[in-house]
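queue> pop job 88
queue> type: inverse folding (structure -> sequence)
queue> payload:
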């Protein structure tokens, strides 16, 4: 097995930064399981210490230099970032689309992508200020779900204004989602919007929402935390949406 070079180590390490991921069109995944899932969809550029394909080898020290994790997973895969999806392709998608407005935490984004994979949501549309889905922390949190969930970044408002389907948005002052979903027949196509961890959905995006919903606390008059974590909230709403 070929040994990795010093220049390759430096190159892989540089991909932890978004500007180099954008420049080279590549991202890093760690661990055999994650790499195995991504190989089903993404084109590999370089595999390191991966046992099931031709790859280069590296020492433990070199692995630590390239890894973004405190405890490296033993193998790395460098994959090509796919070309952007055309908006008309999203327009023709007859299914539930998740929209993320300003999600900042990589762990939240990765968990949301993994949750979408579980509930059969194949497209996520993000605002331009949402965290990069190819950030190493996001990639690891997805556990390979990026192989099945397509993530796109666009200017949300013009696109949302063109949509002719129910657009659900989560708000603290929205209507009880259990009532809204039970009273409203789902169309083949719908959009669900989740907002920023601290500020929620932005005013401009809120103006595009047709149905403002909330996850009710229990019991209704009890003192609780101000809100749910956005990744957990996404899972709760998707579970209810899919139940009906």
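queue> result:
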């Amino acid at each position: 097995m070929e040994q990795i070079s010093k220049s390759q180590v430096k190159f892989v390490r540089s991909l932890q930064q978004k500007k180099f991921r954008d420049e080279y069109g590549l991202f890093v995944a760690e661990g055999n399981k994650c790499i195995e899932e991504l190989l089903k969809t993404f084109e590999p550029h370089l595999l390191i210490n991966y046992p099931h394909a031709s790859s280069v080898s590296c020492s433990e020290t070199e692995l630590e230099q390239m890894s973004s994790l405190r405890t490296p997973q033993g193998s790395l895969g460098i994959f090509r970032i796919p070309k952007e999806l055309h908006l008309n392709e999203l327009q023709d998608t007859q299914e539930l689309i998740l929209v993320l407005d300003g999600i900042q935490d990589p762990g939240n984004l990765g968990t949301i992508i993994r949750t979408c994979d579980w509930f059969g949501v194949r497209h996520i549309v993000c605002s331009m200020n949402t965290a990069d889905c190819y950030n190493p922390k996001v990639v690891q949190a997805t556990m390979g779900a990026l192989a099945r969930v397509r993530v796109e970044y666009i200017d949300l408002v013009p696109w949302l204004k063109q949509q002719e389907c129910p657009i659900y948005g989560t708000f603290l002052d929205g209507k009880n989602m259990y009532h809204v979903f039970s009273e409203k027949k789902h169309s083949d196509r719908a959009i669900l919007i989740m907002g920023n961890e601290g500020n929620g959905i932005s005013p401009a995006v809120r103006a595009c929402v047709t149905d403002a919903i909330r996850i009710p606390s229990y019991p209704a008059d009890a003192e609780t935390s101000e809100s749910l974590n956005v990744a957990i909230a996404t899972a709760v709403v998707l579970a209810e949406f899919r139940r009906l």
